[in-house]
Design goal:
Length: about 280
């Protein structure tokens, strides 16, 4: 794990392999994992400590209640609700019930590309992860279907001996899960974006701009100018909606990128400084 001090708080970085190390050693494929999580087996996750992973993922609450901060806003998630995360998402667990149970599905970008799923352009799932929707409710029959798909993927991946059609089965189940997510969520996402208030829309536009431009622009005034509002008004609205200042969001986005690049081992310190325009 890596950790950086950001605004006097730590952001801990977990790799997919570290997150479920014991299970990973038994899997046929290392690029994804499905695991059942309860409060008792989440001892490595500290409350009130921001964290990121190197994976994409979806977790469904099967029982109990979870309080967390995700995507810069606090959420209370309970039974039949789910949340999404991506490598750019900062997650912070706040409180969890003793009876908490959830099923989590995590996969790497490389694995998604390898099996030809998602990310061939700006797919709807990519859209969901990166922009508008982080937490959502699911109808009970949908939760049951998702759990069946995830349990099937887990069983196939933990099989002690690979079957002749194992890769095809995994790819097809991934595809089915993707279609189900799109079918259930896209109308909700579009409706949420259209119906959101002006302050929420301004916050969304600000965060979208930051993700797109933080490599070269880290001034709050720059984003205020882009959004045609005053710096004072932007700061007030972002604080009201997210609980963070615009500068905190810019700095957390920047440090999340630095962490990911350092963790990848593909970039030297000088490469990162050049890419992110550190003088």
């Amino acid at each position: 794990m890596l950790a950086f001090e950001i605004m006097d708080r730590r952001i801990t970085f977990f790799t997919l392999k570290e997150f479920v190390a014991e299970q990973m050693n038994k899997q046929q494929y290392e690029g994804f994992t499905i695991c059942h999580l309860q409060k008792s087996n989440m001892t490595d996750i500290r409350s009130y400590e921001p964290m990121r992973t190197d994976s994409f993922g979806m977790s469904i609450i099967l029982k109990g209640k979870l309080g967390m901060r995700i995507g810069f806003s606090e959420q209370e998630i309970h039974e039949n609700m789910a949340f999404l995360h991506s490598p750019t998402t900062i997650i912070e667990f706040l409180e969890m019930n003793d009876d908490l149970e959830m099923i989590s599905f995590m996969f790497s970008l490389d694995f998604a590309k390898k099996i030809g799923m998602f990310f061939q352009g700006k797919s709807s799932l990519d859209f969901l992860f990166d922009y508008y929707l982080k937490v959502f409710s699911l109808r009970e029959p949908v939760v049951k279907r998702f759990v069946v798909y995830l349990e099937h993927l887990r069983e196939v991946n933990l099989s002690p001996t690979p079957t002749i059609h194992q890769a095809e089965i995994i790819k097809s189940t991934f595809a089915l899960l993707n279609y189900e997510i799109e079918s259930e969520l896209m109308d909700h996402v579009i409706g949420q974006v259209v119906l959101s208030g002006r302050k929420e829309k301004l916050c969304l536009d600000f965060i979208t701009l930051v993700v797109d431009q933080f490599h070269t622009h880290r001034s709050v005034q720059h984003y205020a100018d882009c959004l045609f509002v005053s710096r004072k008004y932007l700061s007030r609205v972002i604080k009201e909606v997210t609980g963070l200042s615009p500068l905190q969001i810019i700095e957390q986005t920047l440090m999340a990128e630095v962490t990911a690049k350092l963790r990848s081992n593909f970039y030297s310190i000088s490469d990162i400084m050049q890419q992110l325009n550190f003088s």
